[in-house]
Specification:
The chain is α+β, with helices and mostly antiparallel strands and 497 residues long. Helix content is 24%, strand content 31%.
Amino acid sequence: MNQSIWAKEEQKVMYPSNTANRNIEIAVIGGGLTGILTAYLLQQQGRQVEVFEAETVGSGMTQNTTAKITSQHRLIYDRLISQFGLEKAREYASRNEAAVSKYEELVNTQNIDCDFKRESAYVYTTKEPVNIKNEVMAAKKCGINAYYTTSTALPFEVTGAVCFQNQASFHPIKFLSALADNLTINEKSRVLRMKKHQLEIVNKAADGQEKTYQVTAKYIIIATHYPVINHPGYYFTRMHQERSYLIAVKRKDALPYGMYIGECDQDYSFRKYGSYVLIGGMGHRTGSGGDKDHYGELIKAAEKYYPGAKVEYKWSNQDCIAIDEVPYIGRFSKKYPDVFVATGFNKWGMSSSMVSAMMICEAITEGKLQEDSIFSTSRFMYQASKKNIKSNVRVTLKRLSLQTFLMPKGKLSELKPGEGKIIRCGLKKAGVYKDQDGKIYAVSTRCPHLGCMLEWNKEEKSWDCPCHGSRFDYKGKLLSNPSVKDLKPKDNKSNLE
């Protein structure tokens, strides 16, 4: 079983749900880092807040991060200046720098034991370092204490690196758990839909029984990684999701200092935690690349750079990528001025979670919401977005078309144990998996979110949606939003061909 170094041994319900219909002041949807931070900051301001989490606190993307808290988001500031202008690039930098400091403040004032550590963050290259040098100049213009260097603690030579000093790392679940203990949280409570200020929520008890209840709130905050409410925000037209992979290897003498990420997508990231080195990379769009051995490639890298090191953990994560690669933080829609959203963190969830919490708290408690902010949910920057727009439209149209018209050629008789495939099921099709004992699991290939055809991910034995990133296990159980429903099972397996 793949499990992150941060994950709890077992995900238990610690915060039973109150299933009574009720009115509250503020409802936060999502019990990950963004939701818990936002709820905590609002409660500190004397507000009445409840959190509604579909599974258990911290069981989603928060437990699968690299846990770096940094204003350094690869090579971003040179691009922000050219596409958004210097003023907005400075806002991005200052908000993220403030987020790092806010984490330290909470850790110190609340005496949270979460292995928080201030350290430098580097972006390195093994190629011509022109982009690295440009980023150093851009970061300085934005007020970041950055410098250029060719000296790192990496186990290979680099041609150049940009270093951001005074960044941080921590144990995200230890931190999250400490804050959550002070909050009113409803676990196993999945929000199905929102109508104005009312939420319809289904609670699933330990015995499998479900109860639906309604909560009416003056303010609603959608902090579910990818928004589970489609309308009227239409965030599914403005984002896609990507997966990345990590391993943790035991190595006491590795990385005496620093956190690292490569300039290019094919480069690896490195950071140390205790006696472990975390190595990450192999990113790809969710629903593609499912036939590759991503963990195998990371293990090869570990063997190359740290001979003899033992791989003790391996896990994957999923990130929302906004079309212009800047988070959406603010009002969910102009139609719903009291509903807020935080999404599109573009692989930098730790700092972006705190930026979101601070901005939304300011908006609710002080009425401060900068409508022309770089994080504005209503912005549209075509030049910064056109590449991702074209890719997202192409993928969505293709997968909708395949779901409607494709008749698969695969046959049940050809399916090997441990393999999944889309095969014919009468006049329709089914996603079929055969376990090691030969048992067959058949589910719908149609994503319940918006109807795209799913793709089999052999490495993680899941059905993944290339359009918007929903994921389901081979039995059809929902793993990742934006879908709020499981896949429909194909009960009549006699039609499988």
